[in-house]
């Protein structure tokens, strides 16, 4: 049987990188998209190859349609037809109250997290539908969109625009799931809570954010990226064969 082929957007660092490496360890070949961190993406590819997978790093801005189309085409040229996609690339922009937010911060976040994610979802749908079986179905294929528990919390005083962008991901997931389940493609979202990645220092601009918020989480700590990746791998797998349109919270009780 041929190996499943997974594309992860934003696979060079953080949660996306953990998903890529865990997927390789579980028998997927992996396309690792990144925007600018070429060295980090190369390290993820090396880790995937060390686990016995074929892997490729593909640069592309997932807010730009031409880049999205090129990354999907190059992934399939390198690894064969895609069977699974994780729609993970996301940013917050510098934290502030809404009144103080730069309009460009809001626009850029929505460009990547909403418009880009919907365009990636569109491309993923087209790729997964491209090689149906004899019954015209794409059985066994799956898409996971990465949301956030912020969609339900609202992220007041930090980045309400980001919370709103993830609310859009939840709606996108519900619609895609109902549209694609009849042809055999399962779509779900995973909504992480606070996870130890560079998003807090590099995207939100507050290196101490995890330490500040961790005591308010019922589990009293942030997640490790692998704890989120584990749930994503479940949602991609046949172990989740009847899980469709679910928003799987990985929030430590928050
Ligand atoms: P991260 O450590 O900052 O990594 C972000 C990844 O996305 C990097 O690989 C980055 O590429 C890529 N990326 C960003 N903008 C991109 C673009 N326009 N095109 C292509 N790639 C892009 O972030 P993370 O914490 O792992 O977050 C991953 C996802 O989880 C996001 O959707 C985020 O909203 C969500 N999430 C995170 C948390 C958390 O606490 N960490 C909680 C809830 C939800 P480069 O390396 O090239 O920059």
Structure explained in plain terms:
- The protein is α/β, with parallel strands linked by helices.
- It has one domain (5-250): Rossmann fold, CATH 3.40.50.720.
- It is 45% helix and 15% strand.
- The protein is built from 9 helices and 7 strands, in the order βαβαβαβαβααβαααβ.
- It has helices at 14-25, 38-50, 65-79, 103-129, 150-153, 160-180, 199-203, 209-213, 225-236; strands at residues 5-8, 29-34, 55-59, 84-87, 141-146, 185-192, 247-250.
- It has a 7-stranded parallel sheet with strand order 3-2-1-4-5-6-7, sandwiched between helices.
- The termini are far apart.
- The relative contact order is 0.14.
- NADP nicotinamide-adenine-dinucleotide phosphate binds at residues 9-16, 33-37, 40, 61-63, 88-91, 112, 146, 148, 192, 194-195, 197-199, 202-203.
